[in-house]
Amino acid sequence: MNKADTQWQDQAEQAERSGASSDNPEVERYRLVLRALGKPTVAQLPADFARSVQLKVIGNERRAAFEDGLVTVLMLVMVIVGLAVAFPYIAPIVSTVGDSLPIAGSALSAADSALSNVPWKTILAASLSIAVAMAMERFFTRSAQLA
């Protein structure tokens, strides 16, 4: 604060104590601030307000971390399912390469037998149900916060 501000503040305090008005608008601004600071606050916060806010923030952070992990797992599942769906289209290309490279042909047959034993429909249905549940939870949580 500079010297003029300090003088205006002192004049405002004296004018507020004596009840006299001032012609200086800066002094009147300081008086307004002094009056506002002198009044009690309208809303009284509960004693454990800071703790309750902290607990809400921690809960939101935990939920966000869980959701991030779940989304990562679902994305990996979706990539695997996408590769399995694309496998029949990619297989002829790989088999032509497999004819020229023996190791590629054996890898292709091993992958084909392994992929035929995986319950893809169950994995896809589980992934979709988890994604729908997450979307519903987010929608209902946001709707409850807006209400």
Please explain how this structure is put together.
With 147 residues, the chain is mostly helical. It has two domains: 3-38, no CATH class; 49-146. The chain contains five helices and no strands. It has helices at 3-18, 25-38, 49-100, 102-116, 120-146. Helix 1 (3-18) packs across helix 2 (25-38), helix 3 (49-100) packs across helix 4 (102-116) and helix 3 (49-100) packs antiparallel against helix 5 (120-146). The mean pLDDT is 76.
Low-pLDDT windows of residues = none
Distance between the termini: 45 Å
Approximately what portion of the residues adopt beta-strand conformation? under 5%
- Category by helix and strand content: mainly alpha
Helical amount = over 70%
How many domains is the backbone divided into? 2
Specify Rg, calculated over alpha carbons.
34 Å
According to DSSP, the number of beta strands is: 0
Order of helices and strands: HHHHH
| Overall average pLDDT | 76
Annotation field: number of helices: 5
Envelope shape = rod-shaped
Main sheet characteristics: none
What would you say about this model in short?
The protein has helices at 3-18, 25-38, 49-100, 102-116, 120-146.
Secondary structure topology:
Layout: H1 3-18, H2 25-38, H3 49-100, H4 102-116, H5 120-146
Helix pairs in contact: 1-2, 3-4, 3-5
Search tags:
mainly alpha, 2 domains, rod-shaped, 147 residues
